[in-house]
């Protein structure tokens, strides 16, 4: 007579949380940051015998050590935040827009071209409006192309948007070659340097004040759009289940195209801010990889634009801090990047413990009636 098979309970199980209070989620995130600082401190001491507190002070100095450094940090954080805002509606819809780099570049090319063509002939306030509209339209078109193919033929949006980055890079290279300065360098050079036609004017006494104002308006506007509008509700439903969206009478093709037009337009506007509000030139490095970094911003914030502000500043702070400690303590870039990687790993890893819980053998999972 055979004995029945005994199913042994595993030592550890992973279960999805039904819901975690917001304060507990933030407590886990704070714990992750503290753990990251401890691990980074151990790494710093192991390779340099330096006091980790000194290194962290140097990181703060690199990001906020002077008024100019503080405003450059704010400028870069606003740029990253703008791109994250652009990606938020697409990612919430689970349309994986990996093409922000290309959308930034086409917006930047339109801005640079208009600065060269209309500088000196159109007043700067009018020129800024024209450039903003042109960059929005260019980014929207660049975003709509993969959406149309997805809606019509079911193409893979991840690969499609990624490949369009390379097309945008080649278009930018062509424009740079067409507009390059007399010295034949591989960048256009500072556009309208003597007249500053098409440059952002100072606001609040700061060169980057208008950058901040534009992105703050976008932050509030996108939060309201996703949380309170009918279109934001449709985006959420499509992201949760396309079958449910179809059952509710939502046209997926319309939502895909409309949402990607908005996503691409805001990324195109980021190109406008980068060219007219910061570098005043265009090159293939104008996006600078921020289109990919912004994916981390949008994902960690769970598409909440106000939380994106904190994450954008954190990532820019880590970048500036890594540069500072590399130069101040004669550490190579690899060491400073390891510190950044440890901090990012802990922060990203904390999201796992917010979404899931670990249940050890012998511990009963709580059931609520």
From TrEMBL:
<feature type="transmembrane region" description="Helical">
    <location>
        <begin position="103"/>
        <end position="120"/>
    </location>
</feature>
<dbReference type="InterPro" id="IPR001851">
    <property type="entry name" value="ABC_transp_permease"/>
</dbReference>
<feature type="transmembrane region" description="Helical">
    <location>
        <begin position="26"/>
        <end position="50"/>
    </location>
</feature>
<feature type="transmembrane region" description="Helical">
    <location>
        <begin position="255"/>
        <end position="276"/>
    </location>
</feature>
<feature type="transmembrane region" description="Helical">
    <location>
        <begin position="126"/>
        <end position="147"/>
    </location>
</feature>
<keyword id="KW-1003">Cell membrane</keyword>
<keyword id="KW-0812">Transmembrane</keyword>
<keyword id="KW-1133">Transmembrane helix</keyword>
<dbReference type="Pfam" id="PF02653">
    <property type="entry name" value="BPD_transp_2"/>
</dbReference>
<protein>
    <submittedName>
        <fullName>ABC transporter permease</fullName>
    </submittedName>
</protein>
<keyword id="KW-0472">Membrane</keyword>
<feature type="transmembrane region" description="Helical">
    <location>
        <begin position="70"/>
        <end position="91"/>
    </location>
</feature>
<feature type="transmembrane region" description="Helical">
    <location>
        <begin position="207"/>
        <end position="226"/>
    </location>
</feature>
<feature type="transmembrane region" description="Helical">
    <location>
        <begin position="296"/>
        <end position="318"/>
    </location>
</feature>
<feature type="transmembrane region" description="Helical">
    <location>
        <begin position="338"/>
        <end position="359"/>
    </location>
</feature>
<feature type="transmembrane region" description="Helical">
    <location>
        <begin position="159"/>
        <end position="179"/>
    </location>
</feature>
